[in-house]
Write a structure and sequence with these properties.
- The structure holds two protein chains of two kinds.
- By secondary structure, chain A is α/β, with parallel strands linked by helices.
- Chain A has 22 helices and 19 strands.
- In chain A, the strands form four sheets. An eight-stranded parallel sheet of chain A has the order 1-10-7-6-5-4-3-2. In chain A, strands 18-17-16-15-14-13-19 form a seven-stranded parallel sheet, with helices on one face.
- Chain B is built from six helices and nine strands.
- In chain B, a hairpin with a 5-residue loop joins strand 7 and strand 8.
- In chain B, helix 4 runs antiparallel to helix 5.
- Classes of the chains: A alpha/beta, B alpha+beta.
């Protein structure tokens, strides 16, 4: 039976700790726990059997650190193949004919990817791809990328597993910091948004921090994703007693906690550091055979995420402003800097827009002909260390995107894909592969249709093609195309009508707002007027100038009068009387 | 931008640059004194003239096939032989051919006023007409830029026959290319367009 089918049926029990269990059984471990795979496979078989006897549905191979980068630290990088194959074999021997799944465990490479560390994405990708290939060859049933601390590394690992095997994949991160963040600053919502679009079979939380907080973390992930969530916590925060570390939670106490994980919606539950076969036995008694809770569909919004925070657009949430200022159009100084491949002003605009209250930043560095794809990618990489806002990658160049997407820590938005075959045929697969969202633009071989109905038709056919390419509804946002009213206002009315029609279909919307006033006097006035009219029709976001205070204020006021700001909380916070309690 | 489809725009905004009208009439800041009479005439004529302006624009986008000695395009015999345009188009992969006119009514009015011996008024109408067609061309140009931005294309500045080394005779090519007869424009053997308040131009489209 495969994991997808099992997950639908019941809650699955994952095994407990391997490393701490080996330490308990062996008087000493040489160098790394993985060395046991070759030197003493029998002890591995014993541990696996103990967990299976305790009731585990899934056991994990002893390969947490068996990737070439991690193994190089102790000179074992040539043993990647042997260590992974031996671990898989031990697990298979322990399983025998029992109905248990074997998960290939894959931990972090131990060095951070640039700009946080010195590693490059390709090397990390290769290390995971290699380990995944050997685990698959060893006969595991699924892969689990776990205890990740960097969202970019985890996403890269997922991609590698997807690319080189057909096995189901799970991914989990460790959120030990206060408020539930990884040591690199990611919140569980950001992880859920980022991973779910790379299509793992389940995503989750493991190890690190206080297991009491897991319940909350699971719930937060489930607001964002409909993927099954899995959780395996450490048996409490270890205390030093004499020479050894002791994990405080007893099997009974741990199984009480696990009940809470189940109640908050986790569907695969096991143990991490410090848990023993006794813990899994208690856990199994408490939860084995339980039906999985109903999976709520997340709201119909667009998901985007930076390394640290998630952004939702639509679904009744407040109006979002995507900063438009990183765009050389009409900005001569910025343009000449970009031509010289310099980024001072780009960085400056990023900071200023973030300060002014932008929810995301659009990154347009001019025509693809002008911009070398490498330069675009390096700018995207660089901007992530300047701002925590999610980025809209505003380029139509597949080359620039193919280089920038692997470097993006989170879930970016590609702006935009249109109805021309050359556009969607090339860009949807890229979005799918790298877990990006996309702006769908109402334009095709015949240009931008005059009337709303034809624009909506383009959007609908793009949505169908996007879903066919494997994207999900939360990856999509529509742009009905705004043109300058320099000629006729009739087009603007059609745009507004299209906004309303798309909104009625439950699809989030955005637009390039400033285009409405291009070439005209009193641009701020026209922009604000059109914005208010469009929000009334259901517009959810706009690529606009957040440095225009007036515009931000109009957006907040529109939120207040259209009920997108419950209790007018944000409005009163911005404009109401303040008082000290 | 869509290629090879001729598009007619009948609703162009005419936002007249009054300073430019005054300067056409010979006004120099700090040197020319306005008479009250002149100010009144101007004021009245503006509104009268604007009622007679019926702007129409037409354009077509052609993909560039070759940029040698001459610039050649796909699906048309029109060619451009001009150093100025070669410089303007150095990054362009397509060109917009366009024309804008304000229709015959204003010019008929000018003739009428001249016949009545009201030369001052005729002169003012003529100046306003010149700026009106310029403003209508700006409006179409702006529309084209906002269209191009949707697909992240850039447009060069507008360049008309008679500028640089682009000969006035190129108006003949544009007349044919854009079927200007359809919007009520004629051309004579000296390449002059009627109504005279008609502008033709090319714009480069950069990828």
């Amino acid at each position: 039976m495969n994991i997808q089918a099992m997950l639908k049926e019941r809650v699955l029990i994952l095994d407990g700790a391997m490393g701490t269990e080996l330490m308990r059984r062996l008087s000493q471990i040489d160098r790394v726990p993985e060395a046991v795979n070759l030197e003493n496979p029998q002890v591995l078989i014993d541990v696996h059997k103990a967990y299976i006897d305790a009731g585990a549905d899934i056991i994990e191979t002893n390969t947490f650190g068996a990737n070439r980068i991690k193994l190089a630290e102790i000179g074992l990088e040539r043993k990647v193949k042997d260590l992974n194959l031996a671990a898989a074999e031990a697990a298979r021997k322990a399983r025998g004919h029992r109905n248990v799944l074997i998960a290939g465990s894959m931990g972090p490479v131990g060095q951070l990817i640039r700009p946080l560390g010195d590693m490059d994405v390709e090397s990390v990708y290769e290390a995971y791809a290699e380990q995944a290939r050997f685990l698959a060859k060893g006969g595991v049933d699924l892969l689990v990328v776990e205890t990740q601390i960097d969202i970019l590394e985890a996403k890269t690992a997922l991609r590698a597993c997807r690319d080189v095997t057909d096995l189901p994949v799970g991914v989990s991160m460790s959120f030990p910091l206060e408020g539930g963040r990884t040591v690199t600053g990611s919140e569980p919502e950001a992880a859920a948004a980022t991973f779910s679009s790379v299509s793992p079979e389940f995503i989750g939380i493991n190890c690190g921090g206080d297991p009491e907080e897991f319940e909350d973390l699971i719930g937060r992930m489930r607001t964002i994703t409909d993927k099954p969530v899995f959780a395996h916590a450490n048996a409490g925060i270890p205390e030093k007693r004499g020479e050894s570390l002791v994990y405080p939670l007893t099997p009974e106490a741990y199984s009480e906690l696990a009940r809470k994980f189940y109640a908050s919606g986790a569907r695969v539950i096991g143990g991490c550091c410090g848990t023993t076969p006794d813990h899994i036995k208690a856990l199994s008694r408490a939860l084995k055979g339980q039906k999985p809770g109903a999976q709520e569909r997340p709201a119909s919004w667009l998901l985007a995420s930076s390394r640290s925070r998630v952004l939702t657009i639509g679904g009744g949430g407040r109006f979002r402003i995507i900063g438009e200022n990183i765009n050389p159009f009409g900005r001569t100084k910025l343009r000449s800097e970009i031509e010289k491949k310099r980024l001072e002003r780009v960085r400056d605009y990023a900071r200023k827009q973030a300060q002014a209250g932008a929810d995301a930043l659009d990154v347009n560095l001019g025509q693809p002909g002008d911009t070398q794809p490498e330069f675009y990618a390096s700018a995207v990489s660089e901007l992530q260390s300047v701002t925590t806002l999610p980025l809209f990658l505003d380029t139509t160049s597949p080359d620039a995107l193919a280089r920038a997407l692997p470097l993006y820590a989170g879930k970016p938005v590609i702006n935009s894909v249109n109805g021309k075959r050359g556009s969607w045929e090339r860009l949807f697969p890229l979005a799918k592969k790298f877990g990006a969202s996309v702006v769908l633009l109402a334009l095709d071989e015949k240009g931008i249709p005059e009337n709303a109905e034809d624009r909506v038709r383009i959007i609908e056919s793009l949505i169908q093609r996007a879903l066919d390419a494997g994207l999900s509804p939360t990856d999509l946002i529509a742009d009905p195309a705004v043109l300058s009213v320099a000629t006729t206002g009739a087009r603007a009315l059609e745009t507004l009508k299209a906004v309303a029609m798309i909104h009625e279909r439950g699809i989030p919307t955005t637009c390039g707002l400033s285009n409405i006033s291009y070439g005209l006097p009193q641009r701020r006035l026209l922009n604000a007027c059109f914005l208010a009219m469009a929000i009334e029709r259901g517009l959810d976001s706009a690529i606009a100038n957040p440095l225009d205070r007036n515009l931000i204020e109009v957006a907040r006021a529109c939120d207040a009068v259209t009920g997108r700001d419950p209790g007018m909380k944000m409005f009163l916070q911005a404009f109401g009387r303040t008082f000290e309690p | 931008m869509v290629h090879d489809r001729r598009t007619i725009e009948r609703e162009l905004r005419v936002d007249i640059n009054r300073k430019a009208v005054h300067s056409l009439l010979g006004y120099r800041k700090g040197q020319t004194a306005w008479t009250q009479e002149m100010a009144t005439l101007l004021q009245r004529t503006y509104s009268e003239a604007l009622d007679l302006v019926e702007p129409v624009g037409v354009y077509i986008v052609r993909r560039i096939r070759e940029k040698d000695d001459e610039i050649r395009f796909f699906r048309t015999k029109t060619r451009i032989k001009s150093r100025s345009i070669r410089m303007l188009f150095h990054k362009a992969t397509a060109a917009v051919f366009l024309a804008v006119t304000i229709g015959p009514k204003l010019e008929e009015k000018i003739q009428e006023e001249t016949a009545k011996g009201r030369n001052e008024k005729a002169l003012v109408l003529d100046a306003i007409g010149s700026e009106a067609v310029e403003a209508a061309a700006d409006s179409l140009n702006t529309h084209l830029v906002s269209l191009a931005r949707q697909t992240r294309h850039f447009l060069t500045t507008r360049f008309s026959p008679g500028y640089g080394d682009l000969p006035l005779s190129f108006q003949q090519d544009l007349y044919r290319e854009l079927s200007l007869r359809d919007i009520g424009v004629r051309i004579n053997e000296k390449h002059i367009l009627f109504p005279q308040k008609t502008i033709t131009a090319v714009i480069g489209v950069e990828p």
